[in-house]
Design goal:
Chain B: It comes from Lingula anatina. Chain B: GO terms for molecular function: glutathione transferase activity; maleylacetoacetate isomerase activity. 2 copies of one chain form a homodimer. By secondary structure, chain A is an alpha+beta fold. Chain A folds into 2 domains: 77 residues, Glutaredoxin (3-Layer(aba) Sandwich), CATH 3.40.30; 122 residues, Glutathione S-transferase Yfyf (Class Pi), Chain A, domain 2. Chain A has 10 helices and 4 strands. Chain A is globular, with a radius of gyration of 18 Å. The first copy, chain A, starts with 7 loop residues before the first strand and ends in a 10-residue tail after the last helix. Chains A and B meet through strand 4, helix 3 and helix 4 of A and strand 4, helix 3 and helix 4 of B.
């Protein structure tokens, strides 16, 4: 009988892309019965004793699978795909060329995150406007634009809707949440990046993605930090 | 018949941890016949046309497996382990608790690498001494010490020599190269972190690690940037 995730527990925060990835994979693998506990970042919920007991780093996602604890989002996603391979669609194809493509795209995502979050968004979110080095911000935005152009090219090369062509894979589960956060922060994909725009629309509609959409994204507008990219 | 890596090609740079990871896994999986082309970072060899054709990011490792190109080191290592599972030791155990532990440690390595490299060593390597914010460097060293304490704890918890009690795994292939880079730059593991010190000695002796040891580490002394961290 298929596992529905009843023995699983996920601590998560709204808007956290690592959490979102794990939630997408849980849905894709039919593990929707995983218990989910939402924490509030502003209340420092991720530093609660409950979480620190399971994750000394005091971060979300914090994920318990029966007695097993796997907190790193990439680790949790890979563990779930490997352990529940027979449930839901194969998120990492077994055909060598496709497997290589999916793995490659999965592990290029951290480069996008560095250029988007570390070099731009975190600075806007944590520094006062007068503290920002405007020249540096301009350079970082140009670098992000170049990075997005690479991903636009990847979609063209894949020749379908998704990063691996016609089928949704782990590459999309990893990449989409990061892209969605950029859109939330004012990034206009069209007309510069038409494939990314179409990709964003298509993946947004996927049931696993809709079910795990960050609640506060529906309730409020994001800050338009990237509107001028 | 076992694949020995004859159709594989790896562009690499001496001292690059991501390259070292892939080289360890190639050796562990018996793929030693992979062709290896050493580039020089100072000559900007990683930006050559030859590499850019295969890797628009102009980085090493750049790795070709027959017709397939997989340049991200984590991707290459996972691809090799999955594709050549029956060759060499299993680097990702199939038993659930061990599999989870190994995957967890593998993907904690980026947190370690950030504190070690981006927040500390790259600043020493690429900035002039007068450009360094000394207060920031002090905080960076304290954060690295805390991070190392976690990994010392992981070794204690695993109960053996390696990050997974059962033996050498992908977690060690990912973690060791960065640790070795820190030791190269003056980090003294003992007596503060005895398990890490013993780990460093044990893993250094592993054939796959010996074979892929960065050449210039053998030829010259490292700088002592981290001599005062512990």
């Amino acid at each position: 009988m298929a596992d529905t995730g009843k023995d699983m527990l996920l601590y998560w925060g709204s808007g956290s892309f690592p959490c979102w990835r794990v939630m997408i994979v849980l849905e894709e693998k039919g593990l929707s019965d995983c218990e989910k506990k939402l924490i509030s970042f502003s209340d420092k919920g991720h530093k609660s004793d409950e979480i620190l007991k399971l994750n000394p780093r005091g971060q979300v996602p914090t994920f318990k699978c029966g007695d097993i604890i796997i907190n790193e989002s990439f680790a949790a996603c890979l563990y779930l795909e490997d352990t529940y391979k027979s449930q839901g669609p194969p998120l990492i194809p077994s055909e060598p060329a496709r497997k290589a493509n999916v793995l490659q795209r999965m592990f290029e995502e951290p480069t996008l995150t560095k250029k988007a979050r570390d070099d731009i968004l975190l600075l806007y979110m944590t520094k006062k406007p007068e503290e920002l080095d405007q020249e540096k911000m301009t350079k970082s935005k140009a670098a992000l634009k170049e990075e997005l152009a690479l991903w636009e090219g990847y979609l063209v090369k894949a020749g379908g809707t998704y990063l691996d062509g016609g089928e949704f894979t782990m590459a999309d589960a990893i990449f989409f949440p990061s892209l969605a956060i950029l859109v939330r922060c004012g990034l206009k994909l069209a007309p510069t990046f038409p494939k990314l725009a179409a990709y964003y629309d298509a993946v947004s509609k996927r049931p696993s993605v809709e079910k795990s959409w960050p609640p506060h994204f529906r309730d409020t507008e994001g800050k338009p930090y990237l509107a001028d990219l």
